[in-house]
Amino acid sequence: MSSSGHGHTPAAWTGVIISFIGFCVAGAFIVMANVPGFWAGMVLIGLGAVVGGVMRVAGLGSVPKSSPKPAPQVQPQEG
């Protein structure tokens, strides 16, 4: 599984960490019944997605896989 490199990029780590902090903030403020704090956490969750996407576009994400190579043409044998 780790050989595929899925998510092992600076863009993925940064986006997930920011979103996780937003999740923790929103969770803490919802327990405290603080609506503005909850929505601030929700904004952080969305910000994590945006930052991760911008970093991916900037070249800090994984390299897209190339299209599969076509199968070699098989020549019929004469004989």
Q: Could you explain the architecture of this structure?
A:
The chain is mainly alpha-helical and 79 residues long. Helices cover 61% and strands 0% of the residues. The chain has 2 helices and no strands. α1 packs antiparallel against α2 (35-60).
Number of helices: 2
Estimated share of beta-strand residues = under 5%
Mean pLDDT: 86
Which sheet architecture does the biggest sheet show? none
Topology of this structure?
Layout: H1 10-31, H2 35-60
Helix pairs in contact: 1-2
List the defining traits of the structure above.
79 residues; mainly alpha; rod-shaped
Care to give the gist of this entry?
The chain is mainly alpha-helical and 79 residues long. The chain contains 2 helices and no strands.
